[in-house]
Amino acid sequence: MALAVILVLLVVGTVLFHVLSPWWFTPIASNWSMMDDTVKLTFWVTGIVFVAVNLFMVYAIVKYRHRKEQKALYKPEDNRLEWILTVVTTVGVALLLTPGLFVWAKFVTVPADATEVEVLGQQWNWSYRLPGKDGTLGASDAALISADNPFGLDPKDARGQDDVLIASPELHLPVNKPVKILLRSRDVSHQFAVPQFRVKMDMVPGMVTYFWFTPTKVGAYNVLCEQLCGLAHFAMRGRVVVDDEAAYQAWLASQPTFAQTRAEVAGDPAAGAALYAVCSACHGAQGQGNPAMNAPKLAHQAGWYLARQLRNFKAGVRGADSKDVYGQQMSPMAATLADETAIRNVVAYIATLPDERPASSVHGDAAHGQALYGTCAACHGTAGQGIWATNAPRLAGMSDWYLARQLGNFQHGVRGTHLQDFAGAQMAQLAAALRDERAVNDVVAYLATLP
Amino acid sequence: MAYVALADRDHALHDPQTFVTKYIWSQDHKVIAIQYAVTAIAIGLVALVLSMIMRLQLGFPHTFSLIAPNDYYQAVTMHGMIMVIYLLTALFLGGFGNYLIPLMCGARDMVFPYMNMLSFWVYLLAVLVLVAGFFLPGGPTGAGWTLYPPQAISNGTPGASWGIICMLLSLAIFIVAFTMGGLNYVTTVLQARCRGMTLMRMPLSVWGIFMATILGLLAFPALFVSAIMMALDATVGTSFFMPAVVSMGKAPVHHGGSPLLFQHLFWFFGHPEVYIVALPAFGIVSDLLSTHARRHIFGYRMMVWAILAIGCLSFVVWAHHMYVSGMNPYFGFFFATTTLIIAVPTALKVYNWVLTLWRGDIHLTVPMLFAIGFIFTFTHGGLTGLFLGNVTVDVPLSATYFVVAHFHMVMGVSPIMVVFGAIYHWYPKMTGRMLNDTLGRLHFWVTFLGVYAVYLPMHYLGILGVPRRYFAYTTADFPESVQSLNASITVAALIVGTAQLFFLVNLVWSLRNGKPSGSNPWRATTLEWQTPDTPPKHGNWGAKLPVVYRWAYDYSVPGASEDFIPQNVPPSASAPAGAHA
Amino acid sequence: MAADAVTTDAAALPGLHGAAMDLAADKQAFPVPWGKLMMWIFLLSDTFIFSCFLTSYMNVRISTTAKWPNPSEVFALNVGSTPVPLLLIAIMTMVLITSSGTMAMAVNYGYRRNRAITTSLMLITAGFGATFVGMQAFEWSKLILQEGVRPWGSPLGAPQFGASFFMITGFHGLHVSAGVVYLTVVALRVWNGFYDRKGTYETVEIAGLYWHFVDLVWVFIFALFYLW
Amino acid sequence: MDHAATATHAEGQQHPVAIYMYIWALLFVVSTFSYLVDYFHLHGALRWTLILVFMIVKAGFIVAIFMHMRWERLALKLAILVPPLCLLVLICLMAIEGNYTFVTRLASFVH
Ligand code: HEA
Ligand code: HEA
Ligand code: CUA
Ligand SMILES: [Cu+2]
Q1: 3 state DSSP class of A240
Q2: Which residues of B touch D (CB under 8 A)?
């Protein structure tokens, strides 16, 4: 009876696998332990049924397997048995459903003392908004979204002025305080999910959805997007850091309000020119870049991107890795820029520099590169022009040798590994899709052909 | 009675003359069935290959890196859609439905053979349009088989320009094809049965296919409508499903649409759809079990009522796919309740299958092996469904590999088991030859053990929180062990995938070399085995329609000379009337 | 149940029990021709299509924050200088109802094997249908040219207004147009005695079912789109 | 039910032409009523009830008389008229859902 034996083995094996499996829920870090309980309960009930049904089947297979002059029993209906089974099943189902509904009732009723936090999802990263002093969030509108109002807040709405805007994918929360997470999306549906919190919810463009929980463990947790949102869905990461009260307040204090972000003055090219003198040594007076100095072209690169990279270098988010030789050279240079204003000024100056095409130095199969570039185009644009909304810098007409080197760095964990470098980490995940050096050169070669 | 005569009214069978009218433009339900089946299996193999490519990426992301993220999402999407719609739906209804309904009901053909023929050709067109997506600029859509807008039609999703249009068009065409066929199946079952064939004497195969067809006729409209509206949103610029969105930093062009509306429409179709592929499997497996256990199906009436109950309930559970979609959270109470209620009739079917084996005279033939494999995997998959149906339990598991494991176990494995069992069972009737037994057993064991090795561990990835529809993970997200588990799953999947060659080889080889089967190799009671010639000729029954005297399950009737009494045998000393008229 | 072939005399038994007996009958569940049942089931399926359209329209209309234009003004016609609300729509409704009436009678005369009257009634029905489509074309052009309403937006308010309107009335219009062709074909066959030769006029009734359904759908569109 | 008897014994559906005329007239009247509902700018619950009532009445007549449902066997009546009921669930829930979306939009968007 090979079949019977194997079926028994499968049943036993299944149970054993369940018991011994190292793959199980991540340690819970929220108040939703009841969810785990309902799961465990369900495992018990269904597990018993699974074993019972299959072992009975095995019994039948063994006992009633075909033998000479054996005849099956002819007894079409057995209503009593059917009814008993119906009742048992109904009871079993009720046993599962009732606790489930009770917990769900908790889920849909948000505690009165829960503070609101808005999560804004977009292809393919996260940002957050806190109500600020007045405890209420201002109105938003997709039509208002732009590079300098990424949250699309209504400038005329008084409630919005003190809203705290967190442009980074890292959110901090105070431990043991219930939060109501409001979910808003800028483009397509996403899902804000942190396995350790158990609860999650889609964010649907054109409306605002919610769920609530109370973080119970201090620590840092990865945010995963669990609603297919396009090509980089799998690389859409954020982080929730659960702090004790003191640390939380400290963090909160360092975050700008909407009013403050509006107040920021544009950089001053004239002031920037002076600062740029330092840079020009390597990057050239026209910011045209200089392979000999390993300095990439800066002219015509998106200002917001340059500013972010300068901040990263200053903060050691980039260029800290010992393998990143040239990055390490850049860090001290960036350090000479005193503050945010300095950064803005120098970026403003770079914006005034003329755009001249660097000679191409990387050789590869542009046709093949074009095929590969299909993936990159999603963020960097079909023309490689760069898109602020996806944090993607310009690639077309930039120093190709530099692009190749950076792709290499991303692939080999030289860049994009720092905890705060979310965009870099995302790029690293996508760069991993390029099989080898050849693939890298092909893409870069294709980029060189773009106008 | 004026109208009773209607059913006796024989078809004006156009008798096919040329090879073309016989095998290509054929109006014979059996030929159409085979055309449907071959097309479905062919496209199914494409989906199979796609799944293998996906597995290679998931199992060995950096060793092979055959594909880029956009290819992966296109593979996932086409894999899912092809498997559900173009393989299983078409194979069960267009294939088995076409072949079995007239034969099992004792009809000469479908009631409207010409329309039936059109149905196939339109289906073929749908498949071609779908495949065309692969060759258009941007490739097929990568929006996931659920095609949620805005994502499905906005840049940043592969194939958002041409692919999605192809997909929507193909679906619309498929629905037209299905409607033409479906109207035929339903009307044939209701109006064209032979004398003595009452509904409560019909084999459960027919019941399952019949109910599935009704579900199709009532559920596909929702998909049809949403396909049209999404196509309009994409091409004309209407805003049904599209709110104001800032895609890639560009200013909104749409205003005020509701993405949730699409999700509701999709699942109003989608959930009945999963039963469309399940119910025929339920029906067919019942007949396999009863025939090869030489015992009547246990609790026939209950089985019929269960099919009806499941069919009705399946229209009021759809939003269990949307517990965490941001819909009105209070819906959770309603849908969790209705969803778990479905478990009861389904449970009864499971019990009755097992109870059919109990006190039977079980022959472990290849079809029987697959039938038992079905019970095992379906019970497993169904039970995991209870996790997901119970709203609270679903929240942590939704959108993880637990879901993927659930629906493969219950849809990607168990109905496929039935498909295989059924082909081993009816191949003799279709060709007059048996399939090779050794190859068959080999095929069963590798497939059965293989798929369990694929999908059992997958649940635990889900519990750990590994999300579905991920091209790759980083070690920052999940422990190394996840990677190694994925690798082993891939290996198992590859083995199973290649094992299908046993089957394909068997199909072709036995056509010539299989041992002749005779007209009723399994000594079965149902009408299709009682045809005057095997394979049945055009018109099925020769001069005279059969007359039915008993239900489909008179196996091992006490006092009978044989351990089975065909439905068309009148009661007599050697063949007493069964307990069940 | 008797073991030999059963043939229930369905017409004899009224009520639920009768229904049960019908369904328990062998050979066929309903005392109607194959084609007629098939048409009924098709219409059932079509009902789901139109219901989904209307439900979607309802959902987007409820959920939009933009102003929803008032149909009774948008679809008003000027008689002299005074605007009469929904005038054209009212007329269209009457036209369609009338066509349904003539169709019903056509079916009737069909069964009485009165070819001349049947044919003419059907052609009249088709004629009304064509008129309806014509009026709809007029209404569309008025909406597009004068009101500036487009499927992707409208000066009057919510873009879903135009979108739903064009989609729903358009889909209904297609049904009507198809019906006109269908009726004409059947009418001609009636005329050349095709059904006398075939021995039954059920096709006329089947065509009738389809036509009445088109009318039925309009009843809902009228109430839910124009009057809401 | 004698109608049914005749209907099934004689060929197909034959009923006195007068009845069609009668229903036709009725439909005219009811349509006019529902038109007047709008004409007199009735509002709120009253408007809704009237509109829906007239709609159902008209639909009823068309199905029952023009489409001969009235003379069909109960089995067929049930088979055709019961399935659409599951649409009611969809319609009601979609109304609620639309409302929910609307409320969240009011709560947090500029309008
Ligand atoms: C053949 C197809 C099929 C079948 C039959 C089922 C059957 C069921 N499914 Fe499944 N399901 C799918 C195909 C199917 N499903 C697919 C394709 C998806 C994913 C779509 C996507 O997102 O891509 C899905 C997803 C899915 C979800 C959404 C998960 C999510 O996205 O978060 C849910 C949630 O409720 C669910 C529930 C159920 C339930 C309760 C059943 C029930 O019908 C199961 C009933 C059966 C049993 C319960 C087993 C037998 C019973 C017994 C042995 C009795 C003993 C029981 C007790 C005593 C308690 N399914
Ligand atoms: C019937 C449906 C069906 C079937 C049979 C399969 C079969 C398989 N599926 Fe598929 N799958 C889906 C339906 C199905 N799948 C759906 C709906 C999705 C969701 C898509 C989405 O998220 O949008 C999905 C998604 C999906 C994923 C998740 C991808 C992701 O979320 O990132 C994975 C990953 O491993 C996977 C793997 C496999 C594998 C390895 C097989 C193997 O093939 C199983 C082993 C092989 C067999 C059991 C034999 C199969 C037989 C045939 C295919 C018939 C061919 C005909 C002959 C051989 C005669 N599938
Ligand atoms: Cu964002 Cu997936
Ligand atoms: Cu479902």
Answers
A1: strand
A2: 1-3, 214, 218, 258, 260-261, 264, 268, 312, 315-316, 319, 327-328, 331
How far, in Å, is the centroid of ligand 3 from the Cα of A229? 4
Neighbours of B66 (CB within 10 A): 12
Of D101, D107, D110, the CB nearest to A141: D110
Average pLDDT on A115-142 reads 92
Looking at the DSSP bridge assignments, the partners of residue C170 are none
Query: Is the overall model pTM greater than 0.90, yes or no?
Result: yes
Exposure b/e, B328-352, CB count within 10 A at least 16 = b: bbebbbbbbbbbbbbbbbbbbbbbb
Q: Which residues contact B220 (CB under 8 A, 6 or more apart)?
A: B175, B178, B179, B269, C45
Tell me the per-residue pLDDT of A75-114, one tens digit each, with 9 for 90 and over. Answer: 888 889 999 999 999 999 999 999 999 999 999 999 999 9
CA–CA dist A89, B521 (Å, integer)? 38
Task: Work out the angle between the directed axes of helices B204-235 and B259-292 (0-180°, nearest 10).
Answer: 160
Token digits of residue D94: 């979609």
Q: What does A252-289 look like in DSSP terms, one character per residue?
A: HHTSPBHHHHHHPPPP-HHHHHHHHHHHHHHH-TTS--
Tell me if B467 sits within 8 A of B399, measured CB to CB: yes
Amino acid at D35: Y
DSSP code per residue over C94-138: HHHHHHHHHHHHHHHHHHTT-HHHHHHHHHHHHHHHHHHHHHHHH
ipTM: 0.94
What residues in B contact D86, CB-CB < 8 Å? Answer: 218, 312, 315-316
- A224/B387 Cβ within 8 A: no
Residue type, B365: T
Distance CA B213, CA B181 (A): 9
Q: Mutation test of ligand 1: which of B78, B273, B274, B379 has the most ligand atoms closer than 8 Å to its C-beta?
A: B274
Give the C-alpha separation, B571 to A290, whole Å: 99
CA separation for the pair D46, D37 (Å, rounded): 9
Q: What is the CA radius of gyration of chain C?
A: 22
Say whether A131 sits in a helix, a strand or coil: coil
State the smallest CA–CA distance between residue B315 and chain D in angstroms: 7
Q: SS3 for B560?
A: coil
Q: What gap in Å lies between CA A307 and CA A312, rounded to an integer?
A: 9
Q: Contacts of residue A184 in chain D, CB cutoff 8 Å?
A: 108
Give how far the C-alpha of residue B139 lies from the chain's centroid of Cα atoms, to the nearest Å: 26
What's the pLDDT at D6? 37
Q: What is the longest distance spanned by two Cα atoms in chain C? A: 78
- Residue A154 phi/psi, 5-degree rounding, is -85, 110
Contact of A327 with A405, CB cutoff 8 Å: no
Instruction: Report which ligand 2 atom has the smallest distance to the Cα of B411.
Output: 1
The first and second tokens of residue D87, run together, are 């649409």
Q: How far apart are CA B569 and CA B524, in angstroms?
A: 12
The answer to whether D65 faces chain C, any CB pair under 8 Å, is yes
Take residue A28 and report the two structure tokens written for it: 């819970």
Cα B45 to Cα B41, B78, B120, B135, B146, distances in angstroms = 6, 12, 19, 18, 21
**Beta-carbon contacts of residue A60 (< 8 Å; ≥ 6 apart):** B354, B357, B358, B359, B360, B362
Residue C9 pLDDT > 60, yes or no?
no
Q: What is the pLDDT of residue A55?
A: 96
- Which ligand gives the minimal distance to the CA of A202? 3
Q: Do the strands A219-225 and A190-193 form a parallel or antiparallel pair, or are they unpaired?
A: antiparallel
Query: Closest-lying ligand to the alpha carbon of B322?
Result: 1
Average pLDDT, chain A: 91
How distant is the Cα of B62 from the closest Cα of chain D, in angstroms? 43
For B16, the token pair is 């096919």
